[in-house]
């Protein structure tokens, strides 16, 4: 019988049998899959688990602190936080091509993770949040930007280089099963039911070259959008929602001042499989509120637009 309890009990036994008294390393991103693996492994083997959390400077507002507070402070998981903002932004300097940006972010992630991993003694296992759909996708070797990064994060050069054996406790589970297990393991439900967030993060939501200052602007705008979606009980009704930073300026009047400032685009979609999507028909009053808050509260933004492009022809992300 499938119940979260049964699955957890089974997984704990399997993990313990597999790794014994060995040490396990996990790259924790704060996404659902790696978070559930962290919680599961922590329950199975406690301090034999070390997580590495790479802050690439392209996370959402307060995200790094949130990951640390959930795992390190509340659950007592050993998490090493690596502040790699300088390194990522340095590598992205002068680069504006979307695929190039993805590649750089993926490769830099591996480098940073590798550096950190090599400092930890006697690790024999690398844990990964591979879930059943990932297994199928890799087998089919389909192409697409999500999978390129997925393959970096999930099955990249790490195991070979570091001679680590793989432990993948979610390999047979679908996303909704992973979520139910996560809740059962005590993870906050906002974390478990969060919209997907791409590996390259805000790096593909700041169009063109990534500037630290623009990342800050985008973070503030995105936070307002998400906060209002939650407040209006709309968050769970859309599949994914976020703000995009457009590196163009438009004229506006904010307060009594003429402003020549940046544009923020809001994107919200409804979809089951993320292969096709329709733009979410959010209430006008709601959009009005979000727009006012962004223009009033986020310095350097004078205009907000709402993306009404479906997929196809548009992709969900802007890059
Ligand atoms: P698109 O933009 O292709 O996005 O319609 C479909 C879904 O995939 C996510 N996405 C990514 N996820 N690395 C990821 O891990 C990526 O490079 C990437 N690009 C897009 C996107 O957020 C959406 O959920």
UniProtKB/TrEMBL annotation:
EC number(s) recorded for this UniProt protein: 6.3.5.2
UniProt pathway: Purine metabolism; GMP biosynthesis; GMP from XMP (L-Gln route): step 1/1
Biological role stated in the UniProt entry: Catalyzes the synthesis of GMP from XMP.
Domain GMPS ATP-PPase residues, every copy: 2-194
GO molecular function: ATP binding; GMP synthase activity
ATP-binding recorded as keyword: yes
Protein name, as recorded: GMP synthase [glutamine-hydrolyzing]
Catalytic activity: XMP + L-glutamine + ATP + H2O = GMP + L-glutamate + AMP + diphosphate + 2 H(+)
Chain residues that bind ATP: 29-35
Enzyme class: ligase
Keywords: ATP-binding, Glutamine amidotransferase, GMP biosynthesis, Ligase, Nucleotide-binding, Purine biosynthesis
Provenance organism: Thiocystis violascens (strain ATCC 17096 / DSM 198 / 6111) (Chromatium violascens)
